[in-house]
Specification:
The protein is α+β, with helices and mostly antiparallel strands and 292 residues long. Helices cover 16% and strands 40% of the residues. Strands 5, 6, 7, 8, 9, 10, 11, 12, 13, 14, 15, 16, 17 and 18 form a 14-stranded mixed β-sheet that branches. The chain binds the ligand N[C@@H](CCC[C@H](N)C(=O)O)C(=O)O. Belongs to the diaminopimelate epimerase family.
Length: 292
């Protein structure tokens, strides 16, 4: 359990991917998996897809995070609902940035935040928050270049697997090109899709349906969570995969990605980087007493 019993929290979401934010300016909070699971429980706790600890970058325990302290004052310490630690969360970056500004911890329209996947640059753009998601890479470039796909995914052991592409955007993703005959809306994502070859650290899995030029719909099964109503890194991976399959390895147009919780924009940037833009909302503040 954490080393204190009453915690302040803020609840926020980005396209209904929802998080419990825990301020920890003094870096006194140690989160274990039980505490995270309890906080994210939608019946017994507060409820959320993940927990974000808001902590000074200089106080992070990981060397790779502390190394970002010169450029980013605050570290987005991210946990999935099952208590596992994740490298990155695209929707989380916007909610985290919105929180930092509301609390006066950052004051400009542009600043950087620290994540386990490296520095992420934030830009406020009207009602939207844009995050430079950094560089991305194909997990198996050789196979992906030759075949367009490098993985197989199935939801049901009795069905034929679907072709997929593995992309790393700071965290692992497997994007499925859904056959036309399959209805995206009625896919059963209640259990984790089977991915082969099995990714060494698991994978978030996205299911994509093209809707028109530069426009796709997506549903996602998140590693460490289950189906969520949005996943920012997943949206980026889905746009990159669709662009790749269309013969455009570096996206030159904006992609609009519809998810059950809303709409996000993906934009190719110089130097093989990609930007994600969308809304961020802080909806509640309170205190919570952790069970003994
Ligand atoms: N919802 C996030 C991704 C959160 C982490 C993910 N479940 C993982 O384990 O990699 C997003 O918006 O990117």
């Amino acid at each position: 359990m954490a080393d204190m019993t009453t915690l302040r929290f803020t609840k926020g979401h980005g396209t209904e991917n929802d998080f419990v934010l825990l301020p920890d300016a003094d870096a006194r909070l140690t989160l274990d998996a039980d505490t995270v699971r309890w906080l994210t429980d939608r019946r017994a706790g507060i409820g959320g897809d993940g927990v974000i600890r808001v902590v000074p970058t200089s106080a992070a325990t990981e060397d790779g995070v502390r190394a970002q302290a010169g450029e980013a004052a605050w570290f987005m310490d991210y946990y999935n609902a099952d208590g596992s630690v994740a490298e990155m969360c695209g929707n989380g970056t916007r909610v985290f940035a919105e929180y930092l500004r509301r609390e006066g911890l950052e004051t400009g329209d542009e600043f950087a935040i620290a994540t386990r996947a490296g520095l992420r640059r934030i830009r406020f753009e009207g009602d939207l928050v844009a995050t430079n998601m950094g560089p991305w890479r194909l997990v198996d470039e050789q196979v992906a270049t030759r075949d367009g796909f490098d993985a197989l995914v199935r939801l049901d052991a009795n069905e034929e697997p679907w072709s997929a592409l593995s992309i790393d955007v700071g965290n692992p993703h497997t994007v499925v090109a859904l056959p036309e005959a399959v209805d995206l809306a009625t896919l059963d994502l209640t259990s984790a899709p089977e991915v082969s070859p099995a990714p060494p650290h698991g994978s978030n899995v996205e299911f994509v349906r093209p809707l028109g030029p530069g426009h796709i719909a997506m549903r996602v099964h998140e590693r460490g969570v289950g189906e969520t109503r949005s996943c920012g890194t997943g949206v980026v991976a889905a746009a990159l995969a669709t662009s790749w399959w269309a013969g455009q390895p570096e996206p030159t147009q904006d992609w609009t990605v519809d998810v059950p919780g809303g709409r996000l924009r993906v934009r190719g940037m110089p130097n093989h980087e990609v930007e994600l833009a969308g809304p961020a909302a802080l909806v509640a503040d309170g205190t919570v007493d952790l069970p003994a």
